[in-house]
Design goal:
mainly beta; YmcC-like fold; 196 residues; 12-stranded antiparallel β-sheet; 1 helix; 12 strands
Length: 196
């Protein structure tokens, strides 16, 4: 039995105990699936604000739409990305991208090749992020490091919003301890699959 299945019972017991009449606090987003809703038809549109782009190319839009579910349970999008959840993590075919528990400082790694290991950590929990699509509260920011050379790291940060998914994606090259922004994409719009 997990904590999520005990929550209704705990709330009922507290209500029967004669606690003050203040409404119970809304539980924080807890499940991994809440931070990246995977369903055929879900669509995210990102605005490319990458500083490395020439000015005339900044602001270009990129749409990611989930098209199908593969026989082995991955959700495939129009960019050929494939994602699924297992018991502890959101993963693609090579790496674990977001893993429980959703606590600041929690870390894990993914071996993506013989010579490459990505190290992940939850850098922030409860963050608020503003994008062209609006303000998102209760976000989780994940930071991934990959050693590219003796003095060079590639850093990826993805900020996930509850019930929406990635709202900000940034990459940096860290050379000799100095970070240089490479890619920045922010959520322009989000459309869940129609139910019907």
């Amino acid at each position: 039995m997990n904590l999520r299945s005990l929550l209704p019972l705990a709330l009922a017991a507290a209500a029967c105990a004669g606690s003050p009449s203040a409404p119970p606090p809304r539980p924080a987003a807890s499940g991994l699936a809440e931070f990246f809703p995977l369903a055929i038809g879900n669509e995210w549109v990102y605005r490319d604000e990458s500083p490395a782009l020439p000015a005339e190319r900044r602001g270009a839009m990129r749409t990611v739409r989930i098209l199908e579910r593969t026989a082995d349970g991955y959700f495939r999008d129009n960019e050929r990305g494939e994602l699924r959840f297992d018991a502890e993590c959101l993963r693609d075919r090579s790496r674990r991208l977001l893993c429980a528990p959703l606590e600041k400082g929690h870390s894990w790694s993914s071996v993506v090749s013989v010579s490459s290991t990505e190290r992940y950590e939850i850098a922030e929990v409860g963050e608020s992020v503003e994008t062209p699509a609006g303000r998102f509260d209760g976000c989780v920011r994940v930071r991934a490091h990959n050693r590219a050379g003796p003095t060079t790291d590639h850093v990826l940060e993805i900020t996930y919003a509850p019930r929406v998914g990635p709202v900000r994606i940034e990459t940096f090259a860290v050379v000799g301890g100095k970070a240089a922004p490479q890619i920045r994409a922010v959520l322009q719009s989000w459309k869940p699959a129609s139910k019907g």
